[in-house]
Design brief:
The structure is a single chain. This protein is an alpha+beta fold. The chain folds into two domains: 31-132 and 290-304, Glycine betaine-binding periplasmic protein, domain 2 (D-Maltodextrin-Binding Protein, domain 2, 3-Layer(aba) Sandwich), CATH 3.40.190; 135-287, Dipeptide-binding Protein, domain 3 (Roll). The chain is built from 14 helices and ten strands. The strands form three sheets. Strands 3, 4, 5, 8, 9 and 10 form a six-stranded antiparallel beta sheet that branches. Strand 6, helix 12 (215-230) and strand 7 (234-239) form a beta-alpha-beta unit. The chain is elongated. It comes from Ornithinibacillus halophilus. GO terms for molecular function: transmembrane transporter activity. This is Glycine betaine/proline transport system substrate-binding protein. Residues 43-187, 206-306 form the ABC-type glycine betaine transport system substrate-binding domain.
C-alpha cells in the first residue's frame, strides 16, 4: 500500500458540496423592468462586470492548467486573471451569481451536477485550448492482471454514461456520496451485473483504488468499490492530487484508478508516467472541460470577452 511519507503529501480532503438554488417568486412590473435593465447592462459590459476574472478551482487540476494556457493563447484575454482556489469556492461563487442573475465566468467540466442544477453553457473555444470531447480512463498497476485477475476483469469491464455519474453527484448533495452510489447500484443491477458476471469470488483480498478528490471521481470510484466488494474484495479508497494519482499507479503503491481525464485534462501527467502502468481504456465517453457561463449571459464564445482596460 502507499508509503506514509508521500501519502500525507498527496491526500486531499474529499469535497462535500451542498448548494441550493433559490426558487423564483412572483415579481411586479417594476421588478421585472429592473431585471431587464440589469440583464441588458450585463450583456454589454460582461467582461467588466466579472472584473476580468475567471473563477477557477484547485491549482493542481488539469482544467486550471488549460485555463492558464487560455489566458496566453487568446489575445482578447489580455489583462484577465484566473482566480484559482477550490471547487467549493467556485461553486459558492456560481451559486451566488446565479441567484442574483449576475455574470460569472467559471472553469467548468462535464460530468458535474452543476449542469443539472443550473442552466449553463460552454463558451466556444476556437483556439482549441480545452480540447474536444474527453473521456475518463481506467489505469492499473503493472502485474495486476496476474496478481488479481478477478479485480482486473471487473475494472476492464467497468463502463457507464455521463448521466449515470451526474445522477450520483446530484444525489450526493443531499446525502453521503457513498450512499448515493449504493442507491445507483441497487437501481442499475443489470449494468453492474454485466461487470461482475462470471467473476469468481475472492476471500477478502485487499485492493487500493486511487482517485482525485472531486465528486465525479468519488462517484465512479465508489461504484467500482461496491462492485469489487460484491465479489469479495476489501477495498480502500485513497484520494490524492492528479499527479500523485499517476505516480501511485506507476510505482505500484496503488492498484488502480478509474479517475484519469484524457486526453487533455490529465494528459501531461499521463505522458510523464506512460509505459509504467497499464491503460484499460475508456470507462466514460463525453467528458468535457472549458469556460462556462449561465445561459442568461448573452455571449457564446471565449472571443466575445473583452481585454482588460
Amino acid at each position: 500500500m502507499f508509503d506514509v511519507s508521500w501519502k500525507k503529501l498527496g491526500i486531499a480532503a474529499g469535497l462535500s458540496l451542498s448548494l441550493i438554488v433559490a426558487g423564483c417568486g412572483g415579481q411586479d412590473d417594476t421588478n421585472n423592468n429592473s431585471s431587464e435593465d440589469n440583464n441588458a447592462d450585463t450583456t454589454i459590459n460582461v467582461s467588466e462586470k466579472v472584473d476580468y476574472t475567471i473563477t477557477g478551482i484547485e491549482p493542481g487540476a488539469g482544467i486550471s492548467q488549460a485555463t492558464n494556457k487560455a489566458l496566453e493563447e487568446y489575445e482578447n484575454l489580455a489583462g484577465w486573471e484566473h482566480e484559482e482556489s477550490s471547487t467549493v469556492a467556485m461553486l459558492t461563487a456560481l451559486n451566488m451569481a446565479y441567484e442574483n442573475e449576475e455574470p460569472i465566468v467559471i472553469a467548468g467540466w462535464t460530468p458535474h451536477f452543476k449542469f443539472a442544477q443550473y442552466d449553463l453553457k460552454y463558451l466556444e473555444d476556437p483556439e482549441g485550448v480545452y480540447g474536444g470531447e474527453e473521456y475518463i480512463a481506467t489505469i492499473v498497476r503493472e502485474g495486476l492482471k496476474e496478481d488479481m485477475p478477478e479485480a482486473y476483469t471487473v475494472l476492464e469491464r467497468f463502463e457507464w454514461d455521463v448521466e449515470d455519474m451526474e445522477s450520483i453527484m446530484l444525489a450526493g448533495q443531499e446525502k453521503d456520496i457513498a450512499d448515493a452510489a449504493q442507491e445507483w447500484v441497487d437501481e442499475n443491477r443489470d449494468k453492474v451485473d454485466s461487470w461482475i458476471d462470471g467473476v469468481e469470488s475472492v476471500d477478502g483480498a485487499s485492493i487500493e483504488l486511487v482517485l482525485t478528490p472531486w465528486d465525479s471521481e468519488r462517484a465512479s470510484t465508489n461504484v467500482v468499490r461496491i462492485a469489487l466488494e460484491e465479489v469479495g474484495y476489501d477495498v480502500e479508497l485513497t484520494p490524492v492530487d492528479p499527479p500523485v494519482m499517476f505516480q501511485a499507479i506507476a510505482s505500484g503503491d496503488g492498484d488502480a484508478s478509474v479517475a484519469p481525464w484524457m486526453p487533455q485534462t490529465h494528459g501531461d501527467f499521463y505522458s510523464e508516467y506512460e509505459g509504467e502502468f497499464e491503460d484499460l481504456g475508456e470507462n466514460l465517453h463525453g467528458a468535457k472541460i472549458g469556460l462556462v457561463v449561465p445561459t442568461y449571459m448573452d455571449i457564446d464564445s471565449i472571443e466575445d470577452l473583452e481585454p482588460a482596460e
